[in-house]
Amino acid sequence: MSKFLQFRCDLDNFIDELKYKIENNNKKVKKLLTQKEPNYANFVKPFEMMEEDLEEFFTPLSHLNAINNSEQMQEVYTTALPIITEYSTLLSQNLEIYNIYKTIFKQEADQLNYEQKRVLELNIQNFELSGANLDEKTKKRLQEINISLSEYSNEFSQNLLNATNEYSYIITDEDDIKGLPQSEIENAKFEENGEVKYKFTLQMPSYIAYMTYGQNRKIREELYRAYVSRAPQNADLIDKILALKYEMSKLLGFENYAQLSLATKMAKDEKSVLNFLNSLLDNSISQAKNELIELQQIAPQKLKSHDTTYYAEILKKEQYAIDEEEYRPYFEQKNVLNGMFEFLHKLFNIRFEKVDEKLWHQKATAYNVYENEQLRAKIYLDLEARESKRGGAWMHNWQSHCTNEKGEELPASAFIVCNFAPSSETAPSLLRHDDVVTLFHETGHTIHHILSTVNENEVSGVNGVEWDAVEFPSQFLENFAYEPRVLQMFAKHYKTEEILPDIMIKKLVKSKNFLSAMGMLRQLEFSIFDFQLHTKLYKKDEVQNLLDTIREKTALIKPPKYNKFQNGFAHIFAGGYAAGYYSYKWAEVLSADLFYEIIDEGIFNSKIAKKYLSTILHKGGSKSMDILYHELMGREPDVSKLLRLNGIK
Q: By C-alpha distance, which of 609, 337, 605 is closest to 489?
């Protein structure tokens, strides 16, 4: 197998290099188009690898833009976006290439394997969804829309990052930090002019700490207000993004953007999605109301949005005698990581070996990944929060497993990014259990990508997987973060090395579905809002009015008017989830169904787990997930398993 790429990104020369590569690619395309008898081997494969090479060059820039943001980075990335978008759009609209793909598919159908057929099918669909068969005026307008959308999405994300980094709340009164764990107090502590002060920010570890433990209600409200009203300028960007997506869908022959989005997903139509979401809502609402009554009973005043996290922690301790802070010493970041690797070794016979490699930050690490003792892939981890880093957690694929034109096997690689509490020379990074779940989730995405054995890069790993199925492997893996046999592999005290006691494990597992119906309603609110928002053109106040209407059923505590959640909804306005946020719940049905099958087989001796490796992880996007899931389970997914997983009866 060929060597892995070395991580590099020369900001000073990036734009020149990008232009050179694009110019070179355009020359290659012209040469490919002059061939007298184009076929899969002499046309499609070189075309695929040309695009893979450009993607591999561009990915380090987009990765660094998210995790090491700086003024120079912003400038280079902002300059690069329209260049790469224009190139990609023109290519995706090239009628000559589109017609050649259709001809090859027709003439070689009998000789092609299912991976190659899938490449052609998806490419033909993508050409049509890019307007390749439309007139030149329409194609030009679609090109302009794509460039504008990429710029607006980047601006949306940058506004959010800037707003998050610019805010801080300084506490000088010791009474206002009462109730916070000592580790959080130490993280917030600083000295100014000889006076000890405490700084809380909108970075997730800091924000969540005060919202969970901070006893001063006014400070909680102030932090909450700052968080939910971030980046008000994004409201104008939302209007622009929605208008452009609506126009794009109309130009491509769809009634709305939701229809365009569903063209590449498992869900059949708008009605199927909304029926699915509303069915979950109907099944969850009664239990959620009872959960809120329980929560209200322990609060001295009527609950408001900035109270729920604080009183939920109190109720959790009361009901389960569980204190999140008591668990954190057992979830030291390195122990969790190594334990998760051990679990994956036992389940799938994959092994992770740390590599000494200079990366973009001293906290970033690299690991070679072996399957059955054969080197298969490489992963890069960047797990701790810092100011230059976008909030949240994600997997970013880099190389894709495939064979090139010469038949050489090329490896896969990917990045895992999280925002855990930072470690220091004197203190380790201690995770909340939610962080453990997040790490398992993103690793689920990662192994889906890197363990692919597919030879065509465009359908290898997560490439080519329907958007509403791509969360399936990640959600499946995260479920094991609550399994006692798995927890015992890594939950050990970082000082004493004592394994997390059985009684604490039982409490944790028991508390898994604490307020789960309220949590379900929150996710359904996001999903229904996103999907309905893209079923017609909403403008200005109509966006807020739609959200308010949905909240009448989903929000059991009415949010304050200053809550402008949509201005921070990066998943749909700066990510790929527009009219697709429902995917989390759609895929969760698959993950819950499979999870219980493996639990019933005893986890480590599970035959279905091995079949999952060979059917889902190895095959990537080479077949529709609909087909792969039937190959795996031999039946339709069982929706009731999702409610069972969430403890909803």
A: 337
Provide the pLDDT for residue 2: 64
What would the two tokens of residue 40 be?
């899969």
* Distance, first Cα to last Cα, the chain: 50
From residue 496, how far is each of 334, 489, 500 by CA, in Å?
15, 15, 11
The C-alpha atoms of residue 570 and residue 163 are separated, in whole angstroms, by 13
Q: Is 442 a catalytic residue?
A: yes
Residue type at 220 in one-letter notation:
R
**CA torsion sign, 481 to 482 to 485 to 489?**
positive
Q: Which of 417, 433, 431, 451 is nearest to 344 (CA)?
A: 451
Phi, psi at 449, each rounded to 5°: -80, -50
Q: Both tokens of residue 328?
A: 């954190």
Higher confidence at residue 148 or residue 183?
A: 148
Handedness of CA 295, 299, 304, 305 (dihedral sign): negative
Ramachandran angles phi, psi of 233, nearest 5°: -65, -15
Indicate the pLDDT class of residue 370, thresholds 50, 70 and 90: very high
In the three-class reduction of DSSP (H, G, I as helix; E, B as strand; rest coil), residue 522 is classed as helix
Closest CA to 228 of 251, 205, 211: 211
Instruction: Tell me the residue type at 364.
Output: A
Q: Which residues pair with 352 in a beta bridge?
A: 369
Q: Categorize the per-residue pLDDT at 183 as very low, low, confident or very high, splitting at 50, 70 and 90.
A: confident
**Residues 415/396, Cβ–Cβ less than 8 Å:** yes
Could you tell me the CA-to-CA distances from 567 to 15, 159, 248 in Å, in that order? 31, 10, 22
* Degrees to nearest 5, angle at CA 235 with 234 and 240: 90
Element holding 369 (H helix, E strand): strand 365-371
| The model scores a pTM over 0.90 | no
Q: Which of 313, 442, 478, 588 is catalytic?
A: 442
